[in-house]
Structure formats: C-alpha cells, structure tokens
Amino acid sequence: MELVVDRIRESYLRFRLTDPGAEHRIRESVGKYGQLSPVVVTETEGTSSYEMIDGFKRLHACRGLGFSTLRATVLRLGSRGCKAALVELNRKSTPLRPLEESLVVQSLYREEKLSQVEIATLLGRHKSWVSRRIGLVETLSQEVLEHLRLGLVCVTTGRHLSRLPRGNQPAALATVLKYRLTSRETERLIRLLQEKPRWEQEAVLRFPEPILAERIPPARQRLPQENALRCLLRKLEQVVRVASAAQETLGSLCWQMVSEQELARVHRFVQQAQACLVRIRQAMEETPL
Q: N or C: which terminal CB in the chain sees fewer CB atoms within 10 Å?
C-alpha cells in the first residue's frame, strides 16, 4: 500500500549502523529510477503511524528527495516479531553485519526476556551463534557502541577494541580517533596495551610511537638528472621568495616589544636557514666543473 512518509517512525533504526556511502548510492538510485521495491513496516497499535522494519535507506532517500508517499508492505507483528524480521528480511539480499545482528539478539535477550534457546529457535540459528552474538555486543563499552552506530569507527576497529576490558575501551578509542588509526593500527595498539604493564599503558595511549613511526614513508628514489635540477631550482626560487617576504615583514616589527625568548627563536631560524644555504654553496664549490 502507499503510505505517507511522515507517518513512518524509525525506533528500530537503533539496531542499524550508519553507512553514508550506501545511503548516497540508494538516494542516487531512487532519484534516477524511483522506488523499485517496497519497504517493510508494521502497524503501530492504537495509532495511525507505522514502524519501519526494512528499508531505512529507501525511506531516507524518499524524504531527502521530497517524496510525500512510498510503497510499503505492511506486516502485523509484535516487538519480538519485528526484531526477528530485521534479521530474517536481510538474510538473502544484504545480510546484517555481525554487530547489527548482535544488537538485535541482545535486545531479544535483555529486553524481550527470551532465553538463548528461544532466540535460536526464533531465528533458525544454533544456540552457540546466539551466544557469540550476545558476547560481541556486551563486551563493548557504550561509547564504542555509539561511535559504531554513527559510523565514526569501522566494525573491525570495534572488534579489536572489544579485546580490552570495557572500562579501558574509551581511552583506547580516544587514541584511535586522535591519531586516526586504521583497523590494522588499532589491532597493533591493542596488542601493545596487552603486552605492557598497567603503569606503561597510559604513555602508549598518549603517544603510540611504535605505531606512528611505521607511517614514515620510505626514502624517495633518486630523481633523473634533469628532474633533479628542475626541482633544485624550484626550491631555491621558493627560498628567495620566502626570504624576501620575511625581510619585508621586518619593517612592521617593533623590536622593543619582542621578548628575549621570541628574539632567540628568530635568531635560531635565521641561523638554520643560513647554515642550509652555506652547505648548498659548499657542495657546489666542491663539485668539479
């Protein structure tokens, strides 16, 4: 049936992870071809609204493009059935990611008060699968979970962070975000923290030097003669231009208001620049013509 977009609520969106790339692709598709397949909703008892079960990206695309209605298949399910449908409706096309499945399974276990055997029967899975899914989400701190939901860190990074005690995860997450660590670098960070005694872990989190040192790019290969000369001339031209601009700035300075510490910094930079130019001149003089 055709439903008014504004009558569809999204309380079950909390079980899904943000994926900006997928959202963009669906919006482009809907904008170009229209809505190709219906979304799945359930009636909200006692109201005139509906709850989205499957098709959140299509709903967001329709809203963003100004659609007033969209096609939907309406199911009559309770909260347990809706959560089970979140998993089952995506099993064949694009399965939920493990963390999304974990959020649903944990909700069935904690909020719906189902046993692990009942959840396994409901979803057609083995009890061990249910146990692993509950364990995955319950080993993560709330802060890490929120970052995962918002797409601020990837699922692989979250899985690596789950190897730490929940109380230690926020500090490790802060380091991951501060230094923009990749999932591989995050795995290395967790390994370092597990190898170090507790009193050394804070220093690792403050500055993970062994990981950052590996980011130094390899030495550049020697340029061909012609390119090397062109590169040298371009850089010397930049030096002259910057030095001339610095000289012009001298006229705007009031040296009486410059502190001794600041004056010492100016002297140091001038000496470093002068030393570089002297070495270039010496290298030229030592080269036989």
A: C
Domain with residue 53: its CATH number is 3.90.1530.10
* Averaged pLDDT, 10-15: 92
pLDDT at 273 over 90: no
In terms of Cα–Cα distance, which of 61, 59, 78, 79 is closest to 5? 59
> Is the dihedral angle over the CA atoms 93, 94, 99, 100 positive or is it negative?
negative
pLDDT in tens, 163-176: 999 999 999 999 99
Q: How far apart are CA 130 and CA 123, in angstroms?
A: 9
69 lies in the same domain as 1:
yes
- Domain finish residue from 189, 213, 237: 213
279 vs 272: CA distance, rounded Å: 11
pTM as predicted: 0.63
Both structure tokens of 120: 């396994």
Q: In sequence order, which ranges of 94-224 are alpha helices (DSSP H)? A: 98-110, 116-123, 127-138, 142-149, 155-161, 169-178, 183-195, 198-206, 209-213
Domain of 71, in residue numbers? 1-76
Report the 10 Å Cβ neighbour count for 160. 23
Q: Hey, what are 257's tokens?
A: 């208001």
* 3-state DSSP percent of the chain in helix, strand and coil, to 5: 65, 10, 30
pLDDT per residue as tens digits for the range 184-196: 999 999 999 999 8
